[in-house]
Design goal:
Helices cover 56% and strands 3% of the residues. With 130 residues, the protein is mainly alpha-helical. The longest helix is centred in the middle third of the chain and has 38 residues. The N and C termini lie far apart (80 Å). This is Heavy metal transporter.
Length: 130
Amino acid sequence: MTPEPRPLPRVRVTASTAGRVSRPVTRGVALPGRVADEAEEVFSRGLVRAQLRLALGCVAAFVVVAAALAGVIAALPTLGDPVVWSVPLSWLLHAYGFYPLILVFALIYARAAARNERRYRQLAEPEDPA
């Protein structure tokens, strides 16, 4: 039986920074094939903020509308009277009434997000001096 070899000690390896000029790391979204400059970084941060505001606004509006729909269904006991395929109408509205809402809010978000992207591209891409 041979003894197991002991693991080597951990060593931290760092690069030498002598003679180099440090450049800030860009966190923005760079367009393909271009180096991100300061203005583009500002525009991309603005795009991220706009998309976040849009997402939070859509979620908040969806929650309000969905709660209102649930409240209306619960407040109207007469919705339980009509029966469709031996299922009360209020049950069907609870089961399937939210899907059209989800679709509507998804379409609103997708169109607004695409509009935000187009605005960003217009700001970030240089104009051709023709």
